[in-house]
Amino acid sequence: MRWKLNILEINNLSFSYGMAHVLKDLNFHLEEKEVVVITGENGSGKSTFLKILLRELNGYSGNIKLFGEDLKNIKDFKDVGYVPQVERSNGISFPVTVKELVSLNFYREFGFIKKPSKKLMEMTRDKLKALDILEYENTPFNELSGGLKQRVMIARSLVKDPKLLILDEPTSGVDMENKVHFMEMIGKLNQEKGITILMVSHECEFIKNHLNLDRILDMREGALVDVGI
Question: How many Å apart are CA 193 and CA 147, to the nearest integer?
């Protein structure tokens, strides 16, 4: 039997906004190919936790290792895909088509003229096709429905073939049909591509009924508590 590797290891993570302690000696590990959901009340620290993982927040204490390397030393997050809430996706203030937005994840590889190469655009279109949204490649992103926007953001997160996919309230603001389709898509990414899934959501019951989960964790008083499935 092959031992699973830890994608993410967190020991004694603490973080405060001034005198307000948000995370307190939090411990957590995520094994490769796991599907884990984190839930919790508003203000419990879920968003802070994600921002720290994505390097949007510093000033924490404790130790975080991602793929065996200290998070503070990682410069390239190519092995991590991130899908924000639909509400955050709606905030794109500049005009951009679907294929342009997805290809922006290749920005560091654009070259001297700061445009994606033919090969990068082919990779972009491959992901759009895989998610059944190639027909929208020239559609302005801001004109799409919530469900389609979510698929586009998933395509954007997948263009570099990440090993870990982090999703923030992925079913919020999405209609039921697209929620079900979304869960099927996540299940395939996990089962067929071996992508590890870490998801923050308030809709655990729905997710549990449509996706094979390994663990559900509740953020309580700045720590993560395993509440079973």
Answer: 22
The encoded tokens of residue 205 equal: 């019951």
What is d(CA 90, CA 169) in angstroms, rounded to the nearest whole number?
Answer: 14
Distance CA 27, CA 144 (A): 39
Looking up tokens 């924490």 gives 60
Q: How confident is the model at residue 113 (pLDDT cuts 50, 70, 90)?
A: very low
Q: Where are the alpha helices (DSSP H) in the chain?
A: 46-53, 86-89, 98-103, 118-130, 146-158, 176-193, 204-210
pTM of the model: 0.89
**3: which residues sit within 8 A by CB, 6+ positions away?**
none
| CA–CA distances in Å: residue 25 to residues 28, 116, 127, 134 | 10, 43, 39, 45
